[in-house]
């Protein structure tokens, strides 16, 4: 049975008298730093000299220093930079500051699980991973609620690593919604698989392939876009709010019957086997090695794939149609 923790299970005294260094001030970094600050934690943000985020962090009332200085000063260091730059950042600017009694934290287990970063044995290594984007993590905190999160301990030198991680999770607001205990392996492998098979890769390919199928059959691209891409948000929102049962309650009986009878024809045994293959590539490290080498080579394949995706016909049609949706622009403002 999954173990869930809440604010009542957290003791913020494990952060008392300690300095938390948040390395990075992007989507997650700004939310962690500001939520920690508002929870009464002594926070310092670590950035590279000349970073455009330096002035933003200071304007938000945060103390800022170089990553090297933060690594020396902070008792707890939360690394919130993209996966592909973490190893070099750690080797060049953080490792020197890790002494006995310190804690190194992550919001994703990639670099620990795939042995890109090997911290000294005398420190705690843990993870607190909010399950959502940073801007929403911050907004929910300010509203008095919170975002669910994951917690894992990789290395427990102090024998209090879990308590410190739980205090951190509570301080950023995750304890209000619930914190699921997991492992670096489980978080990393399920996260990568979810992104590739469903959330990003699977859904994008499914929508674009359905769009292509309708256009190839002679239907207007605009109609194809509305039916295979635009309306997906409406369906996902219903699932988000109340599961598949809520979605099926809200749609027509015709749509519900098509769901049951035709969905398995699209997502059939071949797709299941492909998903298993993708999961195996995550589990055996094949994807990680490929991505690490791709970055070391300057991202030639990644850049080509990005350009090809940007040129998909549905992008041009979607941009035109979204230009007609005034409410989208009002929301952006």
Protein architecture, described:
With 333 residues, the chain is an alpha/beta fold. Helix content is 59%, strand content 13%. It contains 18 helices and 9 strands. It has a 9-stranded mixed beta sheet with strand order 1-9-8-7-6-5-2-3-4.
Describe, in short, the structure shown.
It is built from 18 helices and nine strands.
Observed structural traits:
13% strand; 9-stranded mixed sheet; alpha/beta; single chain; globular; 333 residues
Q: Tell me the distance between the termini.
A: 44 Å
Q: Strand order, main sheet: write it out.
A: 1-9-8-7-6-5-2-3-4
- Largest beta-sheet details: 9 strands, mixed
Morphology: globular
Radius of gyration: 22 Å
| Count of DSSP H/I helices | 18
Q: Work out the oligomeric state of the chains in this entry.
A: single chain
Query: How many β-strands, per DSSP?
Result: 9
SSE order, as H and E? EEHEHEHEHEHEHEHHEHHHHHHHHHH
Strands, helices and their partners?
Elements: E1 4-5, E2 19-23, H1 27-38, E3 42-47, H2 53-59, E4 63-66, H3 67-73, E5 76-79, H4 83-94, E6 103-106, H5 110-113, E7 124-130, H6 134-143, E8 149-155, H7 161-171, H8 174-177, E9 179-181, H9 184-199, H10 201-216, H11 221-230, H12 232-250, H13 253-266, H14 269-283, H15 286-296, H16 300-310, H17 313-322, H18 326-332
Parallel strand pairs: 2-3, 2-5, 3-4, 5-6, 6-7, 8-9
Antiparallel strand pairs: 1-9, 7-8
Helix pairs in contact: 1-6, 9-10, 9-14, 10-11, 11-17
């Amino acid at each position: 049975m999954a173990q869930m923790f809440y604010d009542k299970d957290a003791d913020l005294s494990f952060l008392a008298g300690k300095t938390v260094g948040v390395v990075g001030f992007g989507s997650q970094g700004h939310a962690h730093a500001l939520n920690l600050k508002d929870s009464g934690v002594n926070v310092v943000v670590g950035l590279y000299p000349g970073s455009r985020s330096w002035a933003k962090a200071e304007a938000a009332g945060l103390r800022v220093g170089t990553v090297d200085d933060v690594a020396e000063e902070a008792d707890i260091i939360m690394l919130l930079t993209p996966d592909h730059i973490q190893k070099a950042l750690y080797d060049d600017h953080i490792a020197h500051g890790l002494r006995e009694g310190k804690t190194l934290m992550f919001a994703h287990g990639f670099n620990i699980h795939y042995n890109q970063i090997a911290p000294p044995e005398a420190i705690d290594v843990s993870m607190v991973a909010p399950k959502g984007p940073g801007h929403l993590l911050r907004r929910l905190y300010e509203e008095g609620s919170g975002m669910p999160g994951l917690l894992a301990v990789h290395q427990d030198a102090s024998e209090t690593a879990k308590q410190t991680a739980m205090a951190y999770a509570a301080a950023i607001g995750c304890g209000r919604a619930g914190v699921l205990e997991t492992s670096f392996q489980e978080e990393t492998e399920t996260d990568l698989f979810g992104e590739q098979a469903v959330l990003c890769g699977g859904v994008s390919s499914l929508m674009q392939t359905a769009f292509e199928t309708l256009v190839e059959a002679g239907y207007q691209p605009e109609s194809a876009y509305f039916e295979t891409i635009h309306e997906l948000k409406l369906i996902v929102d219903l699932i988000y709010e109340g599961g598949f049962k809520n979605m099926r309650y809200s749609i027509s009986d015709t749509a519900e019957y098509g769901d049951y009878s035709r969905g398995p024809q699209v997502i059939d045994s071949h797709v299941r086997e492909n998903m298993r293959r993708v999961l195996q590539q995550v589990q055996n490290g094949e994807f990680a090695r490929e991505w690490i080498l791709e970055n070391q080579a300057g991202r030639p394949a990644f850049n080509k794939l990005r350009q090809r995706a940007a040129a998909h016909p549905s992008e041009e049609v979607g941009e035109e149609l979204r230009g007609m949706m005034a409410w989208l622009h009002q929301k952006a403002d």
